[in-house]
Every structure is written in structure tokens, then in C-alpha cells.
Write a structure and sequence with these properties.
mainly alpha
């Protein structure tokens, strides 16, 4: 995720970090060259283009604006829903740390094992959503055999939550945790499972491809038809205006594509690593351990 102070007006025009310009620039150049070719044909009188009406392109532009606006809103809703889920996870981890201290004891080894598995769950969920393998770095929080047991499951992140439930069940059966305490702590684990399920739903359910295809094709059709409507009135200024319009429509289309998948490592995706570090800080504070520093912003980007 891009994290930076808003630059001044001049710097904002030339800012590339976090911009979609590098991705859509080839398409903009192609549209501008096509518009230049249409303008050259018109000025050489090889083809009579000035008679074309602007009305059909205007109607297509209105339809395209509605389609792009709807798709952009739908994509942003997915991005914001994912961010709310990870924000809720921060609340649940802190609530579990506080409640486990009251019910299990501040210095209970079971409490430490419980919270360490919760951290492993957050990092495992981060890796699963980004389609990255689980690394040995998880042994910072759980033992090697615990990690191997989770890896053998089809859903390692959920396996860590199941291990937490087993720890609480053992405490209950041995009489060190009453039924009310078990219920309170299990509710926090259930909430974490619900957050994981919501994130998996977002990751596994993209916007309908047919709708994405319709918006993409309409944007290209509009930008390549626009020169025929403008060249009669603008002349050689038409390619410049067409390039500006292409930047707007292609840019919104590409930005919506980025927001549609919020769990990757693109500049505008969610900073899951930084959110996992927040969990680490919360657990370390609860256990009285030295807390790691927040992840720094590198080149205006927070991972």
C-alpha cells in the first residue's frame, strides 16, 4: 500500500510510485498513434472523416462512464471489506490476549502457547491469501513439529486455530478453565475463523469475468472511435485529447483490476505484513516481551 504525504501540484503530476501509468502507457501510445494516423488521413483528404457525428461516441461514453463507475465501486468495496476484516483481526487478537490473561493467568505457559499459535495463524493466512508457501520463519512462534502438523492439513491457517481450541479443551478437561471461560475464549477463536472465511471468500470470488470483459472492450472501442468524432473540429489537437481520455478510462479500468484483488503485493494492495507486525506487537505487549518495531515504509510502500 502506498503511504506518503500528498506532494505539491507539480510533483503530483509526475509521481509514478503507486501510479498505474507504467502499466497503461503502451495502450495510451497505441491510441495516440492511431488518432494521429486518422488525423493524417483526414488532412490529406484521402478519407472524408469530418462528416462523422460526435453523438454516437457521446452516447457510448455515457454508457462507459456508468459501467466503469459501477465496476470501480464494486472493486473498492472488495478492497475496503478486506481491510475491515484485517482491522477486526487486530481487535480480536488484542481481546484474546486480554481475556486469556484474566482466565488463564498472566504467566500461564498455555496462554503463551495459545497466543503464539494465533500469530502463526495470522502469518499463515497472509501466505495463503498471497498464494505464497509457508516458510520456516513461523518457527519464531511455534515449534517445528507444530508447524509440520499444520502443513499436513489442507488449510494450515485454520489448523493453527484448531490447535488453539485443543489447548483450551485440555485446560477445561483438567479443571483449570471453567465452562464460562472456555466459552469466552472460544468466541474469540470463532471470530478469527470467521475473519479467515471472509478473506477466503473475497480472494476466491472475483468480479464476474463477463462484466470485466464488457467494460474492457467498451473502453477500447470508445478510445479508438473517439478520433473520428474529434478530428474534424480539433485537427492535430485530437490525438492529445484522445490520449488524455484514454489515460482516464484505461487508468480506471486498471485500478479497478488492482482493487479487485486486495491481497497481493502490488503497490495498491493491502499491507498484510505490516498488519501481522501489529499482531506481534500486541501479543508481545500482553506477554511482557520486547515488542518488535512497526514495519517501515520503503520507497513510499508498506508491505
Amino acid at each position: 500500500m502506498i503511504v506518503r504525504e500528498r506532494p505539491n501540484a507539480v510533483a503530483l503530476l509526475f509521481a509514478l510510485r503507486g501510479s498505474i501509468v507504467p502499466e497503461i502507457l503502451p495502450h495510451i501510445i497505441c491510441v495516440a498513434l492511431f488518432a494521429s494516423g486518422v488525423t493524417a488521413l483526414s488532412h490529406s483528404h484521402l478519407v472524408e472523416i469530418s462528416a462523422f457525428s460526435v453523438m454516437p461516441v457521446t452516447l457510448l461514453g455515457i454508457a462507459l462512464s456508468i459501467l466503469l463507475g459501477f465496476r470501480n465501486n464494486a472493486a473498492y468495496d472488495r478492497w475496503w471489506e478486506a481491510r475491515k476484516q484485517w482491522g477486526q483481526m487486530v481487535f480480536e487478537v488484542r481481546s484474546l490476549a486480554r481475556a486469556s490473561g484474566s482466565l488463564l493467568g498472566e504467566d500461564s505457559p498455555v496462554r503463551r502457547a495459545l497466543l503464539m499459535r494465533v500469530l502463526a495463524h495470522a502469518h499463515a493466512l497472509n501466505a495463503q491469501l498471497r498464494k505464497e508457501p509457508l516458510t520456516e520463519t513461523l518457527t519464531q512462534w511455534v515449534a517445528q513439529e507444530t508447524l509440520q502438523a499444520a502443513r499436513q492439513r489442507s488449510n494450515p491457517a485454520e489448523a493453527f486455530i484448531a490447535q488453539c481450541g485443543q489447548l483450551l479443551g485440555a485446560e477445561y478437561r483438567q479443571g483449570r478453565l471453567d465452562s464460562m471461560g472456555l466459552k469466552l475464549l472460544d468466541e474469540r477463536l470463532t471470530a478469527l475463523s470467521g475473519i479467515q472465511a471472509a478473506c477466503e471468500r473475497i480472494a476466491a470470488t472475483p468480479l464476474p469475468f463477463a462484466y470485466t470483459l464488457l467494460v474492457h472492450r467498451t473502453a477500447y472501442a470508445y478510445c479508438y472511435l473517439l478520433p473520428f468524432a474529434l478530428v474534424g473540429g480539433l485537427g492535430w489537437a485530437a490525438p492529445v485529447l484522445v490520449a488524455a481520455v484514454a489515460y482516464t478510462f484505461f487508468g480506471i479500468d486498471k485500478l479497478s483490476e488492482h482493487l479487485e484483488t486486495p491481497f497481493g503485493r502490488d503497490p495498491n494492495d493491502l499491507p498484510l505484513d505490516a498488519l501481522c507486525r501489529i499482531h506481534e506487537i500486541s501479543v508481545a505487549d500482553a506477554l511482557g516481551d520486547p515488542a518488535p518495531p512497526p514495519l517501515p515504509v520503503k520507497h513510499f510502500q508498506l508491505q
